[in-house]
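Action item from last meeting closed. Structure (196 res):
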């Protein structure tokens, strides 16, 4: 079981081993507040196939603390809900589980929107697949980000300061329109297309 907390700027939503099934079954659809307002999303579950869908999740600062998505679980976790970033949101965690946001097949699920940005300082791989429109930029300091869409990284500056970025649809390379800032200890895998 588990009780869904009241949505507010200071809310932490936890998906731990003992409540992951509850949230996966209920999918936040019974919450009347849409989008669901929160400051922190903890994904420490070890249950395969866990996911969030339906209601949008709106990440906002609380008492000067910027929002966090923490993937410390050992299993893959998928977010189908749209994410609205009011503030720069950190993606953290030391779990071995992959975090997937959006899907390759449905361009209306897992969109990342808003004026905030994303900072990746985690040890796992995060896959971004939707045509995202967030404008606050993307910073990668650790871990791996797999961009599976030409606008997966939103519209802002992409700063690589560690970690690695892979850009591919699975069937071919993609062209990102973002401006890039490359710092030390970063890697960017590029596919060069030959003109005919």
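Sequence:
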């Amino acid at each position: 079981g588990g009780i869904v907390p009241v949505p507010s700027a200071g809310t932490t939503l936890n998906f731990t081993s003992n409540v992951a099934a509850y949230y996966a079954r209920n999918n936040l659809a019974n919450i009347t507040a849409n989008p669901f307002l929160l400051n922190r999303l903890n994904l420490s579950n070890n249950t395969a196939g866990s996911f969030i869908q339906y209601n949008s999740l709106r990440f906002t600062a609380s008492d000067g603390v910027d929002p966090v998505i923490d993937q410390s679980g050992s299993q893959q976790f998928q977010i189908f809900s749209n994410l609205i970033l009011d503030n720069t949101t950190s993606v953290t965690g030391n779990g071995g589980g992959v975090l997937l946001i959006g899907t390759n097949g449905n361009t209306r699920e897992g969109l990342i929107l808003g004026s905030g940005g994303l900072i990746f300082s985690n040890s796992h791989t995060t896959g971004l697949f939707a045509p995202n429109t967030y404008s606050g930029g993307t910073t990668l300091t650790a871990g791996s980000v797999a961009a599976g869409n030409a606008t997966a990284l939103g519209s802002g500056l992409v700063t690589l300061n560690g970690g690695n970025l892979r850009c591919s649809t699975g069937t071919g390379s993609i062209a990102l329109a973002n401006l890039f800032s490359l710092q030390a200890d970063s890697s960017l895998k590029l596919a060069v297309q030959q003109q005919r």
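Note appended to the action item: The helical segments are 20-26.
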